[in-house]
Amino acid sequence: MDQDLKENIMGALEQVVDPELGIDIVNLGLVYDIDMDDEGKTTITMTLTSMGCPLAGVIVDQVKAALADIPEVKEVDVNIVWTPVWSRDMMSRYAKIALGIQ
């Protein structure tokens, strides 16, 4: 997968907002990896801010919807992982400022 396509996918994922924090999943540092095979099957490896997140299904649906407009993406698989464990250190400067974290 070329860098432009990866940037397109990350840009689309910035439209997916964590409902609890109101910040997108990219700036929160929840997206760990993007992989695409030759047929366009795209695997998004990501985590959630909390293991018991009741909105996991909503976020997965939003990820799939966000990538639906990218022609190279034929199928989306969202792989939720808990390692490494998410922490505030993974957030972008933007997300920390928006949430008032120093």
From TrEMBL:
Highest taxon in the source lineage: Bacteria
Pfam families membership: FeS_assembly_P (PF01883)
InterPro entries linked to this entry: Fe-S_Maturation_MIP18 (IPR052339), FSCA_dom_sf (IPR034904), MIP18-like (IPR002744)
Residue stretches making up the MIP18 family-like domain: 6-78
A single BP term in Gene Ontology: methylation
SUPFAM superfamilies cross-referenced by the UniProt entry: Fe-S cluster assembly (FSCA) domain-like
Key words of the record: Methyltransferase, Transferase
GO molecular function, one term: methyltransferase activity
PANTHER family: FE-S PROTEIN MATURATION AUXILIARY FACTOR YITW
Name the record gives this protein: DNA methyltransferase
